[in-house]
Structures are given as structure tokens and as C-alpha cells.
Amino acid sequence: MYIKSFTAACAVLALVGCTTMHNEPPGAQPLEEQTLATQAANVLQNEMQQSPDKRIPQALIASARCIAVFPKFTKAAFIVGGASGNGIVACRDKNSQSWRNASPAFYTLRAGSVGFQWGIQSSGVVLLFLTQQGVNALTQNNVKLGADIAVAAGPVGWNASVNAAPAAVVSYQVSSTGLFAGISLSGSVLNFDQTSTGDIYNNSHPDAQQVLFQMNKVPSSVDVYNQKLAQLSSATQQQSMISR
Fold first, then answer.
1. For residues 15 and 3, what is the distance between their CA atoms, to the nearest angstrom?
2. Dist CA 2 CA 25 (whole Å)
3. Are 180 and 118 in contact (CB under 8 A)?
4. Rounded Cα distance, 74 and 57, in Å
5. By the 8 A CB rule, do 87 and 125 touch?
6. For 169-213, how does the pLDDT look when each residue is reduced to its tens digit (9 = 90+)?
7. CB neighbours of 195 closer than 8 A, spacing ≥ 6?
């Protein structure tokens, strides 16, 4: 009786909208994903505020096809030396090379062993995807860095000379004060977070390939990350022109 009543009620309310528990109510924003995007944007802001000798080389930022930020990569108490974190990734628009309409997606990063610098237990992590092989890895699951795809601790120094990509992916550790240093993440596993990505697009089965490279849609709840990527890219281009 209850099921029949509920079905009938939904049919009557269809004209004004009948939502289920799976869908977000109109105007709702996924708080956790919004917070993570804001934290990731803050990591990039801290990078831009560092002295030149402590920044990621502008040549790598300029050539990065995708950028991932994991604001809190934390050592797990139940795994000796292990760490894990959730992050957000965006890839430049293939035609315009812009970050503004680059649909972001969420990922998880798990490491069986990681050596944090500065003796800390939690750190931000930034990954720059520099080659097509690196980009392709984002469309796969259980990608093991260092095995399935080459990864290297990134060099530091805004004006550092980088003639070629050190690896398909370069990685950085970020301290709570914003200091950047290269970090080895070989053996870490990267996975597409279907649940968190689906939350911001109201899609229960999002596809990484479609989200990152075909949608060109940035939900307002996470746009702060794209804004900061665009700002970082703009600063890099301006500095490059000045240096010529």
C-alpha cells in the first residue's frame, strides 16, 4: 500500500519535480568536494607566493597538460610508511590550452611507502602530467606510478632549466607553510574517484575520459580550482614574456 501511494505521489508531483535520495536538490552543493577544491586552490596560491628558488619551474607549469592537487596526503597509522589522500585534477582544453573550461575530476592517491620531508605526518601533493602517456593514465584505474607510468620527484626553482620532461608525471610535496620539494611517489596507486566526481555532476556513473576531455563544464562548486589554475598559467606566461 505504501509503495503504491509513493508511486502515485511521484506521478502527481512529476510536473513540479520528484527527486530521489540519489539526486541533489536544486541549488545544493556537494560540501566535501567544494572544500577539497578550495583547499587545492589554496595549495596553488601558496605556490605562487613562494620565493623563486622554492617554486615549481615555470617551464614545467607551462608544459603541464593536467595538474592534480591532493591537499592532504596523510600518513596512515595502519600502514607502516603508507599515506593516502583525495585530490582534484583538471586538464587543459585541447584547442584553447585554457584551464577555465577544463572539467575537473576527483582522484585518490594511495602509497605503500612514502618519505615525507621536514618530519611531518601530513602534506599536500601536486602532480604535473607532462606527456600524453601521463594524460592517458588518468582514464585508467589502479595506475601504479613508477610501474605503469614513469614518475619522478620534480625539480624546484622558478627559473630552473628544464629541457625535457623528467618523466610522464612529476611530483611535489607541499608543507603546511607552502614550501615545495620534489617527492618520490614511485609505487603509489592513482584511482579515479567515481563517487566524488559523480556528486558534482549529478551523475552516478561518470566516465573519466568524458569528464576530463569532452564535457567542458566546470560546476560552480569547484570553479575556484580552475580559477587558480588559470591564474597560475597567466603568471607563468607573463613571466616567460618578461624573461625573453
1. 20
2. 23
3. no
4. 25
5. yes
6. 999 988 766 667 788 888 899 999 999 999 999 999 999 999 999
7. none
Question: Whole-angstrom Cα distance, residue 22 to residue 18?
Answer: 12
Task: Specify the amino acid at residue 90.
Answer: A
Q: Which residue has the cell 593536467?
A: 66
Cell of 1: 500500500
242: Cβ contacts below 8 Å, ≥ 6 apart:
none
Q: Which three cell numbers stand for residue 13?
A: 508531483
Residue with cell 615555470: 58
Note the pTM of the prediction, 2 decimals: 0.81
Euclidean distance between CA atoms 174 and 181, whole angstroms: 7
The full DSSP string for 116-174 is: -GGG-SEEEEEEEE-SHHHHHHTTSSSEEBTTTB-EEEPP--TT----S-SSSEEEEEE
Please check whether residue 162 is in contact with residue 194, taking contact to mean a CB–CB distance below 8 angstroms. no
